[in-house]
Here is the input.
Amino acid sequence: MKLHYMGRYNLDPENLPHGEHMPGAVPFREPEDTKKLSLIATAVSLMLVIIFGEPVLMRGADYWADPQLMLGCAASLLALLPHEFLHAICFKGDVYLYTNLKQGMLFVTGPETMSKWRFIFMSLLPNIVFGFIPYVLWMIFPDLVFLAVFGALNISSGAGDYINVFNGLTQMPGGSRTYIYGMHSFWYMPGKE
Here is the structure.
């Protein structure tokens, strides 16, 4: 993996690195408009904050006064860049990091193809490391409020990743491969290129 920092993403998918389209490649069924996809991801994220935040808040008023709560919030913001690095290490070749903080965007992309299961693993890895593992640890050690807040916020920040996982699981047949072209993912069957 070789990571390239590309700077601010100007919202033009034509400026993203592109590989070649594979013959017979099928685009994922997802909104063409990135604003619509962003709205869906935001709705999923809010739902996840409620689902995973509610058990934390139901622990009692002492949690609201605990400084670990604010530390967990701050640390979850600091985890955004390492989140993208964990996606990046799942690529074998060149991977490109873009930012557009005004639009709330921070993402990596690469033109290589990958198996369905590597795509799903790549999508989930940061959410497992920064979200689910700390959250489960908090369930074991409930005094560690930091882990609860950090985990819950990182679980919710992976909403776009969960959409990719859902698309991969429901749209890609066994043995297929996927690649990112612009802001969209495609799948194809090897041997039919």
Remarks:
- The longest strand covers residues 2-8.
- The mean pLDDT is 90.
- The chain has one domain: 2-9+34-181.
